[in-house]
Amino acid sequence: MIRYSLAFLWLFTALTSVWFAYDVGVDILSHSFVDPKWYKVLIYLGGVLDSIIGFWLLSGVYLKLNAIFQIIVIVGFTILISVLVPSYWLHPFGPVTKNITIVVLILVWYKKID
Question: What is the pTM of this model?
Answer without folding.
Answer: 0.92
